[in-house]
Design goal:
529 residues, globular
């Protein structure tokens, strides 16, 4: 039997176990991003700022995104079993270094390695899944399972991190990852055929290594600009200006190089398809609108003073909403419902989430009030993800359609990074505006101010404190209350902006001609990253 016709798993492994192994490896390949589920814990452990943690996540993401384009050729050279072992070994070594080291620079380097390992493992797993799917029905279901795993990975890892960090230090997250990787390594060594391949072996020639370095570098640079831009005051900073010029030069060189090569890293001719570009933009704005959950979790944790363990029901609601809606959406796609109509419906559901949040964000709310809106959020992401990707891939010309996957994941990376930039900028702007409005009413001539301070002070006196302690405590509590109100007001203002943006996108999609009749075309040779 030829290697590319040989089963990936050994004959004694039943199909249900093979599918379970594939799904578990897929989830663990995304585990590097679990480290960022508790950014405050990470910042405290390494002694860095929140923006540093954001950039570390963006750097890992960019490393994974860019290596996938290169990996498309490499997977046709190595046998899957050997390639998986290499990925698991890379991830294990980098995790072991992070477990014993608290050096932030070393962690960033390991983050790049973990991004490559994530892409490497994820690519093999996707080939395992999609090489078995011959019909359109099976590929839609495969898309749904894969993207559901991506969407639920964040809340699943947040639950895991919360439970583990409740009793152990941050570096034990790496230890847990190492144990999982070693277990997987034994499973792969025992259960997979060493010579099995997805296709005939293709030599590693004409691989665009230089294009990959350009791609990785300018992705990391744009990520840095988006994350640190607000902190460095954008174009007033010479660092941002120089990096902006460097990014433009790298992007120009990359475009020129890719257009000149016969076998480019990414075939940029795909941009000639107008509807494909619309699909990319939809994916980009989708990630901006879905990137506000960190603000929601922060509000629940800070304003409502909810510890991470008690936020678990909220995360479970997101997981259920995503899984249920993706299963239902897959059925609608298979029934031939217009992709753009499903996408509009998804954005309407997301608008409902923002509208609901505007009603319940207050200092008197309870954690249970946010289970329903976060379920609605999960439903909206489940409804949107597969149709947007399907719309984008179906709009691409057949000859270059496989490039849609690489550009689609880059659009997601760019949308993810931009959502952080928008969040950082808008939060600063809305907090400043809320602070100004609040301070205008809190003047010495306002009679309510002195009455409020006296009531707070009297409450401390009634609790048995002396006059001096009560006065100091009342002032401290009042300042905390003011900060809390500013956060609430700024959060509402931010949700207002997101809601208006969503409504604008919905109106544009309804009015935009030429996109209503895109039909589903999922080609067997395309692996959706």
């Amino acid at each position: 039997m030829e290697a590319h016709n040989m089963p990936i798993f050994k004959s004694w492994i039943p199909e249900w176990l093979a599918r379970s192994i594939i799904f578990i490896i897929l989830m663990i390949s995304l585990f590097s991003f679990a480290l960022y589920g508790r950014p405050i814990s990470m910042a405290g452990y390494y002694g860095v700022q929140p923006t540093d943690v954001q950039y570390a996540m963006v750097l890992t993401y960019s490393s994974a995104v860019t290596f996938l384009a290169l990996d498309f050729r490499i997977t046709k050279y190595f046998a899957p079993r050997k390639y998986l072992i290499i990925g698991l070994a890379l991830n294990s070594v980098s995790s072991l270094i992070c477990f014993y080291s608290k050096n932030w620079g070393l962690f960033l380097v390991c983050g790049v390695v973990q991004g490559i390992a994530c892409a490497l493992i994820c690519s093999i797993i996707l080939n395992m899944v999609f090489s078995r799917l011959s019909s359109t029905r099976a590929r839609v279901i495969g898309y749904s399972i894969f993207y559901a795993a991506i969407q639920i990975a964040v809340p699943v890892y947040a639950i895991y991190s919360s439970i583990l960090l409740d009793v152990l230090d941050f570096n034990w997250l790496f230890f847990g990852l190492i144990l999982m990787l070693i277990t997987l390594l034994f499973v792969i060594l025992i259960g997979m055929n060493s010579k099995a391949r997805f296709s005939k072996k293709i030599p590693l020639y004409r691989v665009d290594w230089i294009g990959y370095l350009y791609y990785l570098t300018f992705s990391s640079v744009i990520g840095y600009i988006l994350i640190y831009g607000q902190q460095l005051n954008w174009l007033d900073s010479p660092v941002i200006v120089l990096l902006g010029m460097f990014f433009i030069i790298l992007l120009f060189l990359f475009i020129v190089r890719e257009n000149r090569l016969k076998h480019p890293l990414i075939n940029l001719q795909i941009f000639k398809a107008k509807n494909f570009v619309i699909g990319l933009l939809l994916l980009f704005v989708f990630y901006i609108f879905k990137g506000t959950t960190g603000l929601t979790y922060g509000y629940i944790e800070v304003v409502l003073a909810t510890d991470p363990l008690h936020i678990i029901p909220v995360w479970i609601a997101v997981i259920l909403g995503t899984a249920i809606s993706m299963a239902i959406t897959a059925r609608f796609i298979l029934m031939g419902i217009s992709l753009i109509r499903i996408i509009i419906t998804g954005f309407v559901i997301m608008a409902c989430y923002y509208f609901y949040m505007l009603q319940f964000v207050s200092s008197t709310g309870e954690t249970k009030d946010f289970i329903l809106p976060m379920f609605i959020y999960g439903v909206s992401t489940g409804v949107l993800f597969v149709p947007i990707v399907s719309f984008m891939v179906s709009s691409a010309p057949p000859k270059v359609a496989f490039n849609a996957a690489f550009l689609g994941i880059f659009a997601r990376f760019l949308g993810f990074s931009s959502s952080m930039a928008v969040n950082n900028y808008t939060q600063l702007y809305t907090r400043s505006e809320a602070n100004d409005k609040l301070r205008e009413s809190l003047t010495e001539t306002n009679p309510q101010l002195s009455i409020t301070l006296q009531n707070i002070q009297q409450a401390y006196l009634n609790a048995g404190n002396d006059m001096y302690t009560s006065k100091g405590a009342s002032n401290a509590y009042f300042n905390y209350f003011i900060k809390q109100q500013i956060l609430i007001r700024s959060t509402k203002d931010y949700y207002d902006i997101m809601l208006i943006g969503l409504l604008v996108v919905i109106v544009i999609l309804i009015c935009l001609p030429g996109i209503q009749n895109i039909v589903l075309r999922l080609r067997k040779g395309n692996v959706p990253y």
